[in-house]
Design brief:
Elements: E1 13-15, H1 21-29, E2 35-37, H2 44-50, E3 56-59, H3 67-71, E4 78-81, H4 91-96, E5 101-102, H5 109-125, H6 127-135, E6 153-157, H7 161-172, E7 176-180, E8 192-193, H8 197-203, E9 206-209, H9 223-228, E10 233-237, H10 246-255, E11 258-263, E12 287-289, H11 298-318, E13 338-346, H12 351-361, E14 366-373, E15 377-385, H13 389-401, E16 405-411
Parallel strand pairs: 1-2, 1-3, 3-4, 4-5, 6-7, 6-9, 7-8, 9-10, 10-11, 11-12
Antiparallel strand pairs: 13-15, 13-16, 14-15
This protein binds 1,4-dihydronicotinamide adenine dinucleotide.
Length: 412
């Protein structure tokens, strides 16, 4: 299955599930005007027919790109998930077909950071319980337990994209920020690295969690860690539900040792609007509960549209696969004055030497070669000095004959 270079306006791109218009705008700005949009996901047969002539498809979380669907999309060369997760795509099958999959893991960083900043302030003021009481007709007008955040200590567990932004925002309102990360991280602003998680927990007025879900982070905040925290301290989790042991948190809230919490993620989350939200957290007035909306803002959707569209454009224009989730990652310079051959193959012995032999048979001067492999596939990009298009086409024809070839492409 191979494609030669097409004019950009011939490359059909199908965007499903109401992907933000920013994606279409970014594609059109770059000359990709053959964009077809669908407001919703499509059932599988309709999806297969929508993808018949598509080179790229953009989806969100509802479209299932199974092996069966991908197998029947003969022209597809790239997939954009305009969201964070990529479980809805059969990544292994896509890889075996030489189709890289891109997503947008960091476009909603700011949205999460802003929500957490608001929660820090609300929890420190005791607003959740006053709000809940007012809804019941009670008037909790007291300053007791209501604190300013200025000068208070914020402990950030996981100092990555989100953690660092929260640190800076919190300093803006006068908090003292420390963080714990398993990697050595450069401190931004006046933040400082805590020597251990235990120390961070013991000294913080508010602890906020921003780690990924891994075997090591599951239950990283359990009964022992909560017991180490200051009496009345607050816990915020907008990372992944299993990071906090929810029953231990419920016990610590019930005893009053933990003075409040804000949770956006849960070990068990409802599948949709009709599915009830069941959690021991529902009993607490001093807990802010949000339905996994930390990153859900219109700005984030717009940024996701741009981020993923740009990744697809880059791959289409110059072959770059940087940040692809299922594919060897190659970052490529522009190739002015050169023809670029992209060759995706099964990672088996002898492929590269056969490719190079084809080049020497044609007496073509290689100006640059980039190779990345993973255990199953190899991706080699070869820039050659400008020659007649017909000569490059002949060369591509030979590369397609190399045993193990999955797909090749030429960019003129
Ligand atoms: P990131 O990958 O930029 O940062 C994660 C940080 O955690 C890294 O610095 C990493 O070294 C550190 N880390 C990993 N294991 C650790 C451990 N055991 N102890 C301490 N530090 C550890 O990720 P990002 O973008 O900051 O996201 C953080 C979390 O937020 C992720 O779980 C992500 O899924 C979640 N998230 C939630 C959203 C929501 O809607 N609530 C939206 C976006 C992200």
């Amino acid at each position: 299955m191979n494609t030669t270079s097409l004019a950009k306006n011939k490359i059909k791109i199908v965007l499903l599930e109401g992907v933000h218009p920013s994606a279409r705008e970014a594609l059109e700005r770059d000359g990709y005007t053959n964009v077809v949009t669908h407001p919703k996901s499509l059932p599988s047969e309709a999806l297969v027919s929508a993808l018949q002539a598509a080179y790229f498809v953009g989806i969100r979380s509802a479209t299932q790109l199974t092996a069966e669907v991908l197998d029947r999309a003969p022209k597809l060369i790239g997939i954009g998930c305009f969201c964070i997760g990529t479980n809805q795509v059969d990544l292994g099958f896509a890889r075996s077909r030489g189709i890289p999959v891109f997503n947008a893991p960091f476009s909603n960083t700011r949205s999460v950071a802003e929500l957490v900043l608001a929660e820090i302030i609300l929890l420190m003021r005791g607003i959740p319980e006053r709000n809940a009481a007012a809804h019941r007709g009670e008037w909790l007008k007291t300053a007791t337990g209501a604190r300013e955040v200025r000068g208070k200590k914020l402990g950030i567990v996981g100092y990555g994209h989100i953690g660092t932004q929260i640190g800076l925002l919190a300093e803006g309102v006068g908090m003292q920020v420390s963080y714990f990360d398993i990697e050595t991280k450069l401190a931004l602003g006046n933040a400082r690295a805590a020597p251990s998680l235990e120390k961070l927990l013991a000294e913080s007025d508010v602890v906020t969690l921003h780690v990924p879900e891994t075997p090591e982070t599951e239950g990283i905040i359990g009964a022992a860690q909560l017991a180490r925290m200051k009496p009345g301290a607050k816990v915020i989790n907008a990372s992944r539900g299993k990071v906090v042991d929810i029953d231990s948190l419920a016990a610590a809230l019930r005893s009053g040792h933990i003075g409040g919490a804000a949770l956006d993620v849960f070990p068990k989350e409802p599948k949709g609007a009709g599915d009830p939200f069941v959690s021991p957290m529902r009993e607490f007035d001093n807990v802010i509960l949000t339905p996994h909306v930390g990153g859900s803002t219109e700005e984030a959707q717009e940024n996701i549209g741009i981020e993923v569209a740009e990744k697809l454009i880059k791959y289409s224009n110059n072959g770059s696969t940087i940040t692809a989730v299922n594919f060897p990652q190659v970052s490529l310079p522009e190739h002015p004055g050169k023809h670029r051959l992209l060759h995706i193959h099964r990672n088996q012995p002898g492929v590269l030497s056969r490719i190079n032999a084809a080049f020497s048979r044609h007496d073509v001067n290689i100006a640059g070669q980039y190779l990345q492999t993973d255990p199953s596939i190899g991706y080699v990009v070869i820039d050659v000095e400008m020659q007649k298009v017909s000569a490059t086409k002949r060369l591509k024809g030979e590369l397609d004959e190399v045993a193990g070839t999955i797909r090749s492409r030429v960019l003129y």
